[in-house]
Amino acid sequence: MKRRFILFLCLLPMFSALKAQQTEKLYLSGTGNDQTVNWDFFCTAGANSGKWTTIPVPSNWELQGFGQYNYGFNKEANKGKEQGLYKYNFKVPADWKNRKINIVFEGSMTDTEVKINGKLAGEIHQGSFYVFRYDISKLIKIGSDNLLEVKVSKHSANQSVNEAERKADFWIFGGIFRPVYLESLPQSHIERVQIDAKADGNFIANLSFIGDADKVEVVLTGKDGKRFGNKFSTAIAKGTKKVALNNQFEQPAVWSSEFPNLYKATFTLLKNGKEVHQITKNIGFRTIEVRERDGVYVNGVKMKFKGVNRHSFYPTSGRTTSKKISIDDVLLMKEMNMNAVRMSHYPPDGHFLDVCDSLGLFVMDELAGWHGTYNTPTGTKLLREMMWNDENHPSIVFWANGNEGGHNRELDHLFPEEDIQKRPVIHPWEVFGGFETTHYREFNYGIGNYDHGHNILMPTEFLHGMFDGGHGAGIEDYWNAMWNNPLSAGGFLWDFADQGVVRTDKNGELDTDGNHGPDGIVGPYHEKEGSFYTIKEVWSPVFVERREMTAGFDGSFQVENRYAFTNLNQCSFSWKLSSFKSANDDAIFKGAKIDAPNIRPFEKGKLKINLPADWRSFDALYLTANSPDGKELFTWSFPIALPKDDAEKIVITKGPAKINIKESSTNYEVSANGINLTFDKTTGLLKTAKNAKGIIPFSNGPFLQEGENNFKGFSYKMDGQNLVISSKFDKKESFNTLEWTVYPSGWLKMQVKYFPSAYFTTFVGLNFSYPESEIKSVNYKGNGPYRVWKNRMKGNQFGIWQKDYNNSATGEAPWQYPEFKGYYSDLYWCEFVGKTQHFKVVTDREDVFLRLFTPKKSKDTEYDNMSPTFPNGDISFMNGISAIGTKTQKPETTGPMGMKHVFYDFDKEPSRALDMTLYFGFSGK
Questions:
Q1: Catalyzes what (predicted)?
Q2: What is the distance between the alpha carbons of residues 844 and 847, in angstroms, rounded to a whole number?
């Protein structure tokens, strides 16, 4: 025991020396919204104002029930001008004596005055999203209590800060919303390290320090903890405070979004051989190069950025987030096969950049500014704060100087002056620096630039995803153009998540400020919308060409490798055959893994499945591609059986008794095997359907949509045991025809041959009436589970789906997805489950769309660009459906898929008519 105690005493000085050379942190606040510390708090106006209480730090005070909510634009001159007064008592460790002590704020909105023990720590900090610090070494008391007092003014005394931040198109929150901590350093310490590690292994660093030192050493370690390369050092000339370091490393594992290889670079400051300070930075070896009139190259490879804009945001805590939220956000982006993210419109939390480094996302980091700009002195200070905090993250490949006119051009020169890596500077929404980044170009206008311009094309915002418009709707057309144009460097969607904030003043209501905030691919709590899966398929780095499952299919798929750095033999593939039973029963599966083909980046080749001899007896084939880390890139589905095959199995024609028909002056009344049907003699429409349980409330169809309802001259006849009721074709007056066939089984067949009423049509098909109050759910075979638009067809899978009724509207409470109402593609059959009755509709035609009711029309802008149009009636069976626009573009300007349908046939030849054939099973069995 005595020997152990002596050993401890011997080791204690070594531990103390090790500690003395490190930068130490002591958090005064929590680290995020999942770990906070209560401080004393006083709010000067709005809710819960005029009294001292407590508030968790970090936080935005509105989300804690204080002050006033306001959504930017500074719409009300006197709104959102409250101040927050904070107090917190803290102690400083005794062994921090004779060390430099800083207090660090990672983010505070907006003007922040800091006092320690009643004395100002320094000038008031103006600007919300930047890490700032004060040297408080002379203000603190070691070994006794210290008082921290902070006054935060939501409205800045600096009008340029208000112009750049408060008038922006996003929620404005007040308070200390990022962590606060004390930072302890030895008197001689490293102040700043700027690192440039190239893909070829060339390592350059500029180091500045304070105090006295004569040497600096650098050691790199890999993820395995082992040293990479040799330790190297540089002597420091007497009287200098800056030193340049250079070394060549052999064959480093380079960093990219596909392979985010990181190293730890440890810098040690020495004096007379003694270590006086040491810091460690995560770095990545990678090279960013902009080639004029060509593109952006990463590690020598030309890039297409598949990006999204992302706010630092969470519904219950505003701009206060956490590392967990950062991880969740990046994982969702990676799940959508994105490789890039833009910081809109300010620098993010440090942990978000850490996660982009470690998981692999290219980042555009942005100095705040939205139509308004910081003045030059303020912008200079804030730009340097951003640079000092973020500059060494390998994920950052662009800097952005403000947004949409919020560019202070006097600051442009500072980016390359401050950045050792000389990363490109972007002016979002502008032609600048060889980049065309203009936002929300209409497809034809934008593609005109793509085809005839000379700048590198990279819209920093495109396809504004308000409610259900944009994002997936239009992206296939845009991406096909971007992918195939050599001047395109990709682009960034607007935006990642709905900005729905919990209103503590409105009983917890989630508020998006009308149509300002619901722009996300995911909801406020990361609920996945339909566009999520469309983007996932369109941006899959494994592109699978469309093909049909014909009898001659030999199991070969044409695939394209759209990775930049990954050979497809590093991925994994599998296939699965499925025989469906029902939505609630397990299917029969057969499947296996596939040998990954040797296809290099940007090349095409074959992926071969060794199919069993009985493969055509299954309903569908599924093909799955996984990334090198095992994550699903996408699963493609290919129907094997056709609708006519299902119809032959499901529809029963034979029955035990003959069909009875009674003719009145207005109706045909038909009965067969317990099913009673009434048809209007003049129009031919189905008026009622009845079984043993009573009337099925499905009627008043087929009523043509964007076609003339000119069915005329009805008559009936027996065709064997079947009853046929049909209209008479006339090229001028009744060129659309309707034929009903009633089978002895009670099944009913409908065949409509029709011509659209115009050359251009929004949609074509036929409608029926069915009360929405009656529906409980549907079971259907087709693509699902998400609805589609004409310009958003990808992302679903073929199968049998069970969907319970909901009245959800995209981007609005309750954010319940998948939505129920809307269009569904590739219908085979559907069972409608009502509160009192259920019935089945089957088709033997391909490419039929099912329409379920009319979704709520969300409040559009004054331009009404989304235009989510739906047919009349309640239930529709369509040959063509409508597209949807975005906040800034009408459907037809999002690309060819968003345009109206085009039909040409004015001679009304029956052989050229559209054909809709449906079978109805009304027995309720």
A1: Hydrolysis of terminal non-reducing beta-D-galactose residues in beta-D-galactosides
A2: 10
Alpha-carbon distance of 357 to 732, in angstroms, equals 69
724 falls in which pLDDT band (50, 70, 90)?
very high
* Conformation bin of residue 21: beta by default, left when phi > 0, alpha when psi is -120 to 50: alpha
887 Ramachandran zone, left/alpha/beta (phi>0; psi -120 to 50): alpha
Query: Is there a contact between 727 and 712 (Cβ–Cβ < 8 Å)?
Result: yes
- Among all chains, which residue has been given the structure tokens 């195939």? 484
CA–CA distance from 825 to each of 480, 850, 874, 914 (Å)? Answer: 22, 7, 17, 17
Q: DSSP state, 404? A: T
pLDDT of residue 3: 40
Taking a C-beta distance cutoff of 8 angstroms, is the pair 767, 701 a contact?
Answer: yes
String of DSSP letters for 325-378:
HHHHHHHHHHHTT--EEEE-SS---HHHHHHHHHHT-EEEEEEEEESB---HHH
What does the angle CA 758 – CA 763 – CA 767 come to, to the nearest 5 degrees?
A: 105
Higher local confidence (pLDDT), 200 or 1: 200
pLDDT band at 139 (very low <50, low <70, confident <90, very high): very high
Looking at residue 448, what is its pLDDT? 61
- What is the CATH topology of the domain spanning 21-185? Jelly Rolls (2.60.120)
Instruction: Quick: pLDDT tens for 3-39.
Output: 433 333 343 343 444 555 889 999 999 999 999 999 9
- Residue 157 is encoded by which pair of tokens? 């005394």
Cis peptide before 910 (omega within 30 of 0): no
Whether residue 267 contacts residue 253, with contact meaning beta carbons closer than 8 Å, is answered with no
Residue 782: which region, alpha, beta or left (left: phi > 0; alpha: psi -120 to 50)? left
Mean pLDDT confidence for 107-122: 97
pLDDT at 509 over 90: yes
pLDDT at 759: 85
Q: Which numeric CATH code is attached to 189-283? A: 2.60.40.10
Q: What share of the chain is helix, strand, coil (3-state, %, to 5)?
A: 15, 40, 45
- 292-538 folds as TIM Barrel (3.20.20)
If one compares 17 and 622, the residue with the highest pLDDT of the two is 622
Closest by CA position to 404, among listed 356, 372, 442: 372
Rounded to the nearest 10°, the torsion over CA 43, 45, 50, 52 is: -10
CATH of 650-755, one of 2.60.120.620, 3.40.50.1820, 2.70.98.10, 2.60.120.260: 2.70.98.10
In the chain, ranges of CATH 2.60.120.260 domains: 21-185
Q: Is the four-CA dihedral 858, 859, 864, 870 of positive or negative sign?
A: positive
Mean pLDDT of the chain: 94
Residue that has been written with the tokens 């996984």 in this structure: 626
Question: Would you state the pLDDT for residue 907?
Answer: 73
Q: Are 423 and 288 in contact (CB under 8 A)?
A: yes
Give the helix/strand (H/E) hosting 449: helix 443-452
User: What's residue 349's pLDDT?
Assistant: 98
Residues 6+ apart with CB under 8 A from 780: 800, 801, 803, 824, 827, 828, 829, 830, 831, 850
Burial 624-643 (b: 16+ CB within 10 A, else e): bbbbbeeeebbbbbbbbbeb
Q: Please, are residues 780 and 830 in contact by the beta-carbon 8 Å criterion?
A: yes
Q: Where in the chain is the domain with CATH 3.20.20.80?
A: 292-538
| Tokens encoding 16 | 């103390």
pLDDT-above-70 percentage for the chain: 96
- Quote the CA–CA distance of 913 and 903 in Å, as a whole number: 10
Look at residue 583 in the predicted model and tell me its pLDDT: 60
> Does 240 have pLDDT greater than 70?
yes
> In the beta sheet, which residues pair with residue 753?
737, 915
Q: Which residues is 493 bridged to in the sheet?
A: 308, 462
pLDDT at 16: 44
